[in-house]
Amino acid sequence: MRFRAKIVDLACLNHFSRIINTIAKLAKTCILRLTVCKLYFILSDKVANGGASMWCELSQGNFFDEFQMEGVAAEHNEIYLELVPENLSRALKTAQSAKAVKIKLTNKHCPCLRVAVELPSLSSSNRIVTHDIPVGVIPRRMWNDFREPSVPDFDVSIYLPVLKTMKSVVERMKNLSNFIVIEANLSGEMNLKIENDLVSVTTHFKDLGNPPWASEDGCQSSAQGRDLESMAEACIDIKKLQQLLAGQQVNPTKALCS
Amino acid sequence: MPFSAPPPASGERYALSASLDNARHLSSLLRAVHFQDHATCFATASGLRVTVEDAKCIQANAFIQAEIFQEFSVQEESVMFRISLSVLLDCLTIFGTSSLPGTSTALRMCYRGYGYPLMLFLEEGGVVTVCKINTQEPEELLDFDFCSTKVVNKIILQSEGLREAFAELDMTSEVLQITMSPDKPYFRLSTFGNAGSAHLDYPRDSDLMEAFHCNQTQTNRYKISLLKPSTKALALSCKVSIRTDAQGFLSLQYMIRNEDGQICFVEYYCCPDENITEAEL
């Protein structure tokens, strides 16, 4: 098992750091899956607690200048690691103005991800800050637990409004109620609602746009025959939603909700 | 009019209906009196008064006169209801409290009458939020009966002079003692805390003193925990008038200028804790 990679471009590094920061805010531990072309950050389902689960797929070519990986075996050319994203986030904090960042999988006393940050210095010799982040290697027999989740059958899929507005509204609603109802339809309208004995508040978003889903998939047929105006709704724990939104550090071009 | 489609059904008469282009003109004033969960709203043709009380000793009033609103109409002689101020503020600031230049939340407020909820329609950047807040039976409010003829001592200070003093009040002291006198120390704030007593004097010829009309030496003590919330009003204001009557009741009136330069008032009334009329300290 070998892994080494290098980032030289500052913009790529910043983007990568922001993604890690977002993940760090969502969960204490996550799975990092490495393949020849991609990195995946996976949070397993927490269906029992109603929390967030996550599947993050990154093309390594978008971030890394060098990327070499050798998996556990030839037929299974992948590596699965368990790590604490907060550690990685903190290591990358020192790399804000770095010349280069090298990441390598090592096994000196225990498996670690060694993050070496090369910092600019006035003298000719380089300054290198190294962080050793302990990781757990996930054995092959457990890889099936972390398969890509299939998008569940949905009734409505819609683009999210400006996250900043949504964040403010959900934050205020959190003071008023424990649960929030999100409803949306295929005409690009989405409502956030809370209701209790004291107060009811509804925020209406319009003109959001609905993403087109390929109709080859059989599961989309339920959305096809759907009345454009009728709303599909879901009731969720507001604290968890607020946590999810508050952690967003990456400014998405588009964010989807289904 | 910030809303293209008026929310009330045609033919409905609302006991209170108002429109405000910038909801912050209302929310910032309400925050200055938000030291209890509930408030009493009292509306007449002249405007809106929001009252908050605590311990039957302190009362704060925020006045937003009708001219501040783009539209303000009260059908009956007056309209009065009790409402959760915390919920009202959360609704008024639903789009956030940070004020980006150029963006503001437009507000429309409607109240059908006794027993009906207060309806708020807020809009910012094309997003509309509708709030329905239940109202309650108004409770009887304290009447401090403070009128200008009964005032014994009065000073008007520029708020910047008092802001630091109030922000740094020794909270381990149970009382804030206020001395006003035609002679030295003229105007003194004192606290008696665990570390010792602290006195802050303002001379009558100070630049900060805009008006000084003290006829009698008075020293009164007020529960500091009750007065501390007035710091919020002080922070927003440019001037404050401090008056006491023969019983030692305290009136603090804060002149607040909003983003558009309009003037509003917030006042705090407080009962004295004990009455010490001697000048000796």
Q: What's the layout of helices and strands?
A:
The complex is a heterodimer of chains A (258) and B (281).
Chain A: E1 2-7, H1 10-26, E2 30-34, E3 38-43, E4 54-59, E5 66-70, E6 79-83, H2 85-93, E7 100-107, E8 111-119, E9 127-134, E10 136-137, E11 158-159, H3 163-176, E12 179-184, E13 190-195, E14 199-205, H4 221-224, E15 232-237, H5 238-246, E16 256-257
Chain B: E1 16-20, H1 24-31, E2 38-44, E3 47-54, E4 58-65, E5 71-74, E6 79-84, H2 85-92, E7 106-111, E8 118-124, E9 127-133, E10 151-158, H3 159-167, E11 175-180, E12 187-193, E13 196-202, E14 209-214, E15 218-223, H4 224-227, H5 230-236, E16 237-245, E17 250-257, E18 263-270, E19 274-276
Antiparallel strand pairs in B: 1-5, 1-7, 2-3, 2-6, 3-4, 4-18, 7-8, 8-9, 10-14, 10-16, 11-12, 11-15, 12-13, 15-19, 16-17, 17-18
List keywords for this structure.
heterodimer; A: 258 residues; alpha+beta; Proliferating Cell Nuclear Antigen; 2 domains; five-stranded antiparallel beta sheet; 16 strands; elongated; B: 281 residues; mainly beta; nine-stranded antiparallel beta sheet; 19 strands; disordered N terminus; disordered C terminus
Runs of chain B in which pLDDT lies below 50 for 5 or more consecutive residues are 1-6, 275-281
Give me the CATH fold name of the largest domain in chain A. Proliferating Cell Nuclear Antigen
Strand content of chain A: 25-35%
Q: Give the count of helical stretches of chain A.
A: 5
GO biological process, one term (chain A): meiotic DNA integrity checkpoint signaling
Subcellular location (chain A): Cytoplasm, Cytosol; Nucleus
Protein name (chain A): Checkpoint protein HUS1
Keywords (chain A): Cytoplasm, DNA damage, Nucleus
